[in-house]
């Protein structure tokens, strides 16, 4: 059991495993919810816990029986409803870290790097200490590494209000191990202003990966908030089909401006995709599958599919065509599955093991036809050709799923994925009393 006076630093708590009373893992701590008041110490009311299925739920601190090194013990009562932040609530990792505050003694400003909460005799958890780093200016320049201080929470001013320009380095450090889809969930749960701040702090490649996993409204808002040249750079880093989908949600004038700022070769592929109807093979496809000539050795083909930037579906197949090998290619010959290549001598050419029996789909084929073809032949990716049988691109199963699922599927909590689990007692939001 946690004893009165137990002090916990939130940045260190993030990522800690949560267990129920019999030792089964419930999830991992992702954040702490506090009520920041104009007077008095902020009160911590609960944990944001990521449970299986990438869902983030609220675990009241009244349901936490112990906080020890490397683990949190709960009573086992968990409300499995997706966590939705209330107006009065503040997320420590998501919103307080990197916030600029003033030191009450008048000695200058500082950035919050961590906060400590302590268990009180009445059972409440209060934020009692703030770990800050001074922001110092020398010669008109901001010093990167100022003095660090651990101060009582009453010795800082401004914790209750967001700063005009808040950093995001500490938050991103907490989530650097997350996959793009998981980081997209984190961004989606943040307030609008904070979401834009965090997105802007990501590098172009990471932001491109995350944008591909966000709902369209979030994509458009984030891209619209970026400086135009940077927005074009991020679009270039995205898969052409995802970039086309995003530009299709923008006003025509803005989309045309961004296309003009992109590199001509990158913009050409996106423009081509924008010309197709959404629910057709052309509207679904990417123009950058793995395409090789029939004389390519199996060893060389395997090297191509090992590329880190290739998603698993596209890496499952090599398409074989006559030159030119960029879409639209020369005449399409067939495809070679990764599994088949692994069974053959590496010095043989892929032209000797090509599968030419699988018929590609036409660029104007409707979504239903594409879906049936993928399901019939148990494929992860399907070739798309024009009337001259030139390869134009490929449709992957993830692109099809994006169009088959409801628009709000990322926010839907009623789908369970994975093996059956021991039932977890559920309590309602009103029963846990979030303050």
Describe this structure in words.
The chain is of the alpha+beta class and 435 residues long. The chain folds into three domains: 7-91, SH3 type barrels (Roll); 169-275, MgtE N-terminal fold (Alpha Horseshoe); 291-404, CBS-domain (Roll), CATH 3.10.580.10. It has helices spanning 10-13, 92-96, 169-174, 180-189, 192-201, 204-211, 216-225, 228-237, 240-248, 252-261, 264-274, 281-284, 298-305, 338-343, 367-376, 397-404, 429-432, and strands at residues 7-9, 17-19, 25-35, 43-51, 55-60, 64-68, 71-74, 90-91, 100-103, 109-119, 125-134, 137-138, 141-142, 148-152, 156-157, 291-292, 317-321, 332-337, 361-362, 381-385, 391-396. Strands 1, 2, 3, 4, 5, 6, 7, 8, 9, 10, 11, 14 and 15 form a 13-stranded mixed β-sheet that branches. β20 (381-385) and β21 form a beta hairpin. The protein is elongated, with a radius of gyration of 26 Å.
Summary, kept brief:
By secondary structure, the protein is α+β, with helices and mostly antiparallel strands.
The CATH topology of the largest domain corresponds to CBS-domain
User: Tell me, what's the shape?
Assistant: elongated
Strand content: 15-25%
- Give the count of helical stretches: 17
Number of domains: 3
CATH architecture of the largest domain: Roll
* pLDDT < 50 stretches: 413-433
CATH class of the largest domain: Alpha Beta
Compute the separation of the termini in Å.
23 Å
Please provide the count of β strands: 21
- The CATH superfamily of the largest domain appears as CBS-domain
Q: What value does the average pLDDT take?
A: 88
Radius of gyration: 26 Å
Main sheet record: 13 strands, mixed
Question: What structural class is derived from the secondary structure elements?
Answer: alpha+beta
**Helix coverage percent of residues?**
25-40%
GO molecular function: magnesium ion transmembrane transporter activity
Region (Disordered): 412-435
Protein name: MgtE intracellular region
Domain CBS: 354-412
């Amino acid at each position: 059991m946690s004893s009165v006076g137990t002090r916990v630093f939130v940045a260190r708590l993030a990522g800690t495993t949560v267990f129920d009373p019999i030792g089964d893992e419930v999830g991992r701590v992702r954040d702490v919810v506090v009520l920041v008041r104009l007077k008095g110490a902020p009160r911590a009311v609960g944990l944001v816990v990521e449970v299986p299925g990438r869902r983030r739920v609220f675990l009241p601190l009244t349901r936490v029986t112990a906080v020890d090194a490397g683990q949190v013990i709960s009573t086992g009562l968990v409300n499995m409803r997706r966590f939705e932040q209330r107006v009065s609530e503040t997320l420590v990792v998501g919103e307080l870290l990197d916030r600029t505050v003033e030191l009450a003694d008048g000695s200058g400003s500082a950035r919050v790097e961590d906060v400590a909460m302590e268990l009180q005799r009445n059972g409440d958890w209060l934020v009692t200490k703030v770990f800050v780093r001074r922001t110092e200016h020398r010669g008109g320049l901001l010093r990167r590494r100022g003095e660090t201080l651990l101060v009582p929470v009453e010795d800082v001013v401004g914790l209750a209000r967001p700063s005009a320009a808040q950093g995001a380095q500490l938050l991103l450090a907490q989530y650097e191990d997350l996959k793009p889809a998981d980081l997209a969930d984190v961004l989606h749960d943040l307030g609008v202003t904070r979401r834009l701040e965090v997105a802007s702090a990501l590098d172009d490649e990471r932001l491109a990966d995350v944008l591909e996993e966000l709902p369209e409204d979030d994509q458009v808002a984030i891209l619209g908030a970026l400086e135009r040249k940077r927005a074009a750079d991020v679009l270039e880093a995205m898969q052409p089909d995802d970039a086309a989908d995003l530009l299709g949600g923008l006003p025509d004038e803005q989309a045309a401006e961004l296309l003009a700022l992109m590199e001509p070769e990158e913009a050409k592929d996106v423009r081509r995709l924008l010309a197709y109807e959404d629910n057709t093979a052309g509207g679904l496809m990417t123009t950058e599958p793995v395409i090789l000539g029939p004389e390519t050795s199996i060893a060389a083909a395997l090297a191509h599919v090992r590329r880190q930037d290739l998603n698993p579906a596209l890496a499952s197949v090599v398409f074989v065509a006559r030159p030119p090998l960029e879409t639209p290619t020369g005449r399409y010959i067939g495809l070679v599955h990764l599994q088949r290549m692994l069974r053959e001598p590496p010095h043989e050419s892929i032209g000797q093991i090509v599968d030419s029996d699988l018929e590609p789909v036409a660029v104007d084929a409707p979504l239903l036809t594409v879906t049936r073809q993928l399901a019939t032949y148990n494929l992860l990716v399907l070739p798309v050709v024009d009337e001259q049988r030139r390869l134009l691109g490929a449709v992957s199963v993830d692109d099809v799923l994006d169009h088959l699922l409801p628009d709000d599927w990322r926010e839907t909590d009623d789908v369970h994925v994975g093996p059956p689990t021991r039932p977890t007692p559920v309590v309602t939001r009103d029963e846990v009393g979030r303050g």
